[in-house]
User: Fold this.
Amino acid sequence: MKTECNTERIEFQRHNRRKVVGRFDGGAISSDAGGLLLREVDEAARVIEQAAACFTDYRDEVLIEHTVAELVAQRVYALALGYEDLNDHDALRHDPLIAVMVGKSDPTGENRKRDEDKGKALAGRSTLNRLELTPEAEPEKERYKKIWFDTEAGMLLFTKLFLQKTQRAPRMLIVDLDATDDPLHGNQEGKFFHGYYGHYCYLPLYIVCGESLLWAELRQSNIDASAGSVDALKKVVGLIRRKWPAVRIVIRADSGFCREEIMAWCESPSNGVDYVLGLAKNERLKKRARKAMKKARRQYVKTGEASRRYCNFKYSTLESWTRKRRVVGKAEYIPGKENYRFVVTSLSYEQAPPKQLYEDWYCARGDMENRIKEQQLDMFADRTSTEHMRSNQIRLWFSSVAYCLMQLLREKGLRGTQMAKAQCHTIREKLFKIGARVVITVRKVWVHYSEAYPYKALFEKVMNNLRSAYNFSGG
Assistant:
């Protein structure tokens, strides 16, 4: 028998003699009941409250049914729960549990002003769309787009959140920079073809420290990968040093960021920032590393296994650098191939010998790619499909706020569990996607989780960790 689907019911294949029939009429049932864990994090860390403060609301207070804080919360929580499309919200606005997460005083929506809105506690796609399409100037005279986003405050938010959660001054911070492609498929403002990636794209700049996001800036792709990095570093490092004046900062990036402007800024006595940067190979560099390569090849001939040697020397480009700098070269011989790699650094030999500099300092930057992957694939940072670059920056920003919440949950709630290093999509699938029946009474919101949920012990462990980390006991 073929499966029959209509708006009333879905008939599946029979189970023995029984019909199997499905209907979307279960009432107040949420498929995202684990999302309350994110609400617990936000109640303590106030991430969404601070994110909402980056907006100014010029709407008539008498006509407002959804505050800016509620709209921001709805957008951020939805991204964290896996709903990247604004169209999803026309169905999600019926979910009473998401309304509870957002902070709605009437999570059932029964007290809405208009009859057609009753039963829909949350905002629909058109309202959220206006939140993203905020004009460049403050919109006092705009008819519809009357919420303004302060880009400068929004960009600084992520570093501020990082500083808030780290109470003790660290001795050293390693700050990673990287750029990535954000493919475009329409006629978005600022669209350019990028030869390296082979398609039209934006070229966002990310700055992270460990797993914590410090900066997320959308840029056109017709620029050098390092463009704007010094300006971003000035703001990020400035905030960090304001709280921890004595902290040692080391920036780390691939050869796309090996530029005189960045290195000179780091070396300035007023900044005092160290750097470990990839350096694109050339014939002059290979010549300096040739002795090390010969040794690596002899070792390969002797053992039959890939061999590597390191060398250390002072080097300057012919024109672009203003001074000689320390360079470490890796000379690796693998079957039939010579593999050269180079790193330029402000660290001394005593601080980081050649092998340690390359293997322990430089190679560790590869973990940043996981952070970018989480942002783009799990938090939908690449959903930059609006016409204007400003609104696409706001979309990137919303996904970054969602990532910050997820990272706080991972750091505070998942520590000591088998998911302590889990990526965002795994956290979502195992902890958020729980079926539950929601019953709302005058005094309580009852969330009846599925008895068949296989990660109950993990869920309880996460809650206990959050209570301990944030020193709360529940309601």
